[in-house]
Amino acid sequence: MQVPLWLVSLCKVKWSELPNKSSEFPQLWFARVEESSVQQEQTCKRLLSISEYKRFKLIKSTFKQRQYLLSRWLIRYALSNAYNQPVDYWNIEEKAGKFPVIHNLPVTTYLSLSHSHDRVVVTISNSAIGVDIEKIVPRNNMAAMAELFMSPDELELFHQHANPALYFYQTWCIKEAYFKSMSSIEQQNVTLRKIDSTLICSEEKGGMVVKTLLAEYMLAVYGEKNQRTIQCYALNEHDAAYAAFNNNDKLTFNYLEVVL
Question: Average of pLDDT values for 183-187?
Answer without folding.
Answer: 89
